[in-house]
Design the sequence.
């Protein structure tokens, strides 16, 4: 195992970022990556995950490719690193053709390249990365939970990432060193951890994880008996946190815009509420503008979908309001984790419909609609499976069949497809797969809403920290406070 020069690493850390020392367990993660070991890194939001792969990338020979799901996420990190004069770039749809061409030409001079999964697997980028002169030091998958959360339907390109390392190594000379693969996320329950290791083909990975528990963050759930009552509770919560930065999460673009418009018409203590809506349907430039204006305090709070949050770091955020319940605990813990990153007290409130749904069935209808959407998508994809060749090329079959990417993802998830490269697959066994939408994550979210135990203890147990959850009483959530 290669020795790690901690003096040089510490000097670079202080010189680039100005910090005196690492947080736990940054040192362990950096050591694993400097030794080019595969890693699965699960650190709570605000733990400094990005530095864990940025620093080794800058110190090692060769190019490290960071695979990131969101344009805003990679743009923020690249802008920060470039401002420090570091050899870092990104490739995505926001760049012009000449800009993309220039990045590809300068690839051998870079230490870190940010791409989305789709951009990584586009022909011009892939062809350039396979050239012998480009030494690949590592593949870092940021926000890796998206592979499990989106990999079968919304972002099927994630399912092909496990074949990337082997395909790149085949293109390089035999004396080139191994390519390390690491997955970073803030949320991964035991099932997600197993799925990530299998799909990414991690080799004896170093697993480094910390508890999601944030003792400064108070978790609360409140029933909204009617539609009007939900709005009143929203206003009351905003008033209780007047002048404090916050985030309101919604589940759809249309509802986000409707609530933002309504809040703009309201006033507290004679002052109008100044906010705006944020979702993935807005132009990239507008999303960037909203992010920056919220960070500098122009907006006290943002009304947004889950598109807002990943990689956006405002340590002064004091509250998160879920106007509607998230579908899964993974979404929930990601989103509440935006509050209280400075370690000071922060609050999270989730508004839910009353249990019967008679007075307000919106939560139940929203969940049913999501399940139906996913089932319809899976049925359309399944109808294509019999038409797929046993051996084929991804681009050929997806050009021929609209839903082929999803069908291939479902076959891979069912263990009936092998990717020989990110572009060439082989089916094995019969093509019949039993597709049942997994409602367990939805049921787990409902169990969290109804639990009578400490909310943090429930979350820690759900994410595999059983020992730490035992006898935990956070003393700050609504359940613990009720017992007081």
Sequence:
């Amino acid at each position: 195992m290669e020795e790690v020069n901690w003096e040089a690493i510490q000097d670079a850390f202080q010189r680039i970022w100005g910090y005196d020392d690492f947080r736990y367990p940054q040192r362990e993660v950096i050591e694993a990556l400097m030794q080019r070991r595969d890693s699965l890194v699960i650190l709570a939001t605000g733990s400094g995950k990005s530095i864990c792969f940025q620093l080794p990338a800058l110190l090692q020979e060769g190019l490290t490719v960071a695979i990131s799901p969101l344009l805003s996420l990679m743009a923020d990190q690249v802008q920060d690193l470039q401002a420090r004069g570091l050899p870092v770039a990104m490739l995505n749809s926001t760049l012009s053709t000449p800009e993309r061409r220039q990045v590809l030409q300068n690839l051998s001079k870079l230490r870190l390249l940010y791409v989305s999964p789709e951009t990584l697997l586009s022909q011009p980028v892939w062809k350039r990365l396979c050239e012998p002169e480009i030494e690949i030091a590592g593949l870092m998958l940021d926000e890796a939970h998206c592979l499990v959360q989106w990999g079968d339907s919304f972002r099927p390109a994630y399912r092909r990432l496990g074949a990337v390392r082997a395909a790149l190594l085949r293109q390089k000379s035999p004396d080139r060193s191994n390519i390390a693969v690491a997955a970073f996320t803030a949320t991964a329950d035991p099932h997600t951890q197993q799925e990530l290791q299998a799909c990414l083909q991690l080799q004896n990975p170093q697993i480094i994880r910390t508890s999601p528990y944030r003792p400064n963050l108070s978790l609360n759930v409140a029933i909204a008996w009617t539609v009007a009552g939900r709005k009143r509770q929203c206003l009351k919560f905003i008033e209780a946190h007047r002048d404090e930065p916050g985030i309101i999460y919604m589940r759809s673009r249309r509802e986000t815009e409707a609530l933002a418009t309504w809040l703009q018409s309201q006033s507290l203590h004679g002052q109008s509420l100044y906010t705006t809506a944020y979702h993935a349907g807005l132009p990239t430039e507008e999303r960037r503008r909203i992010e920056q204006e919220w960070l500098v305090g122009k907006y006290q709070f943002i009304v947004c979908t889950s598109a807002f949050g990943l990689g956006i770091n405002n340590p002064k955020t004091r509250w998160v309001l879920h106007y509607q319940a998230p579908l899964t605990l993974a979404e929930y813990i990601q989103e509440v984790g935006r509050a209280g990153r400075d370690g000071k007290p922060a609050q999270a409130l989730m508004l839910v419909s009353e249990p019967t749904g008679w007075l307000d069935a919106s939560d139940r209808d929203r969940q049913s609609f999501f399940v139906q959407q996913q089932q319809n998508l899976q049925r359309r994809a399944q109808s294509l499976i019999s038409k797929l060749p046993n051996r084929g090329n991804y681009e050929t079959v997806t050009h021929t069949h609209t839903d082929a990417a999803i069908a291939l993802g479902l076959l891979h998830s069912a263990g009936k497809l092998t990717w020989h490269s990110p572009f060439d697959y082989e089916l094995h066994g019969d093509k019949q797969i039993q597709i049942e939408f997994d409602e367990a994550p939805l049921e787990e979210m409902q169990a969290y809403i109804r639990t009578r135990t400490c909310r943090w203890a429930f979350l820690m147990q759900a994410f595999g920290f059983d020992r730490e959850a035992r006898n935990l009483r956070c003393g700050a959530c609504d359940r613990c406070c009720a017992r007081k």
Notes: The two ends are 53 Å apart (CA to CA). The first helix runs from residue 6 to 17. The chain has a mean pLDDT of 90.
